[in-house]
Specification:
The chain is of the alpha/beta class. It has helices spanning 11-14, 31-45, 68-73, 85-94, 128-135, 155-165, 169-179, 203-212, 229-235, 239-248; strands spanning 55-59, 77-82, 99-102, 113-119, 139-150, 215-222, 259-266. The protein has ten helices and seven strands. The termini are close together.
Length: 275
């Protein structure tokens, strides 16, 4: 399931995002790259329309800081929905321009959106396919669905489990005092919710889920190579490492990257480039 590259998310393109493109500093999880992935998907699907004419629904938006808010700042009409009240309340304080909604997606009025995003959400759910089914009625025709999830057997999940098993917070605190002495800055987390991962996805399992729900894969890209908590604590503030980490994921097989980004359409609305 190695995708043919259509979206310019290389390190070179990330340094030249174009006029009006959403802006977000890169981090170890590839969130700057993810933002460009969503923006590029919309520009390719709707080449004659301005960003201000396009509607985006961010399901499981958290506080919006890593996707909904920068997309709104770029001009998109953004609605974000999340069941975690503290995250929604913080999002409303950060960006009144985003239509933040507290609840689940099926509680929303049945409006149509040019892009529906389900990012870093499905791995937290006992029944991820139910959320996918609930989301599809909100996707306009034509429209783009963007799904991102961690590689269930990649570095992030392995790092996270080892970190928890070793109670690594104290050790990392000591190592940070060596590697990052004097640097106490932290990026704003995308959610106030700390719910655990209960799913470990593989590419084949995701492909079957997309097929069952009538979705056509347009693009699949890796987010970054490493992004687990130990790597984040040790190297997350080294900007050269962070940028190379995101760039290298475009040159490795998808099985070796830390997370995946998928752009999808309904099968009736496009041609599968992998066929």
């Amino acid at each position: 399931m190695q995708a043919q590259a259509r979206y310019p998310v290389s390190i070179e393109s990330m340094s030249d995002k174009g006029v009006g493109a959403p802006q977000l500093g890169e981090n170890l999880w590839g969130y700057g790259k993810r933002l460009l992935f969503v923006d590029t998907a919309l520009r390719l699907e709707f080449p004659g329309r301005a960003r201000s004419e396009l509607r985006l629904l961010d399901i499981g938006c958290g506080n919006g800081s890593q996707l909904a808010i920068p997309m709104a700042h770029a001009g998109y009409q953004v609605t974000g929905v999340d069941p975690h009240l503290a995250s929604i309340q913080r999002g409303r304080r950060l960006a009144p321009a985003v239509n933040f909604f507290h609840g689940v997606v099926s509680d929303l009025p049945r409006n149509q959106f040019d892009c529906v995003v389900i990012s870093e959400v499905l791995e937290h759910l006992d029944a991820p396919e139910v959320l996918l089914l609930d989301a599809l009625p909100y996707l306009a025709e034509p429209g783009i669905l963007v799904v991102t999830v961690p590689n269930g057997y990649g570095e992030f999940e392995l790092d996270r489990r080892l970190y928890g098993a070793l109670h690594g917070e104290k050790l990392i605190g000591w190592l940070r005092s060596i590697f990052r002495k004097g640097d106490s800055s932290e990026c704003l987390a995308g959610s106030e919710d700390q719910s655990p991962h209960v799913q470990r996805f593989t590419l084949s399992r995701l492909r079957r889920m997309f097929d069952r729900n009538g979705l056509l894969l347009i693009e699949c890209r890796g987010t970054s190579v490493v992004s687990g908590p130990m790597m984040a604590h040790l190297f997350g503030k080294f900007h050269i490492f962070v940028r190379l980490n995101a760039a290298l994921a475009d040159h490795l097989t998808l099985a070796l990257v830390s997370g995946w980004m998928f752009a999808l359409k309904r099968k009736s609305s496009g041609r599968d480039i992998h066929r």
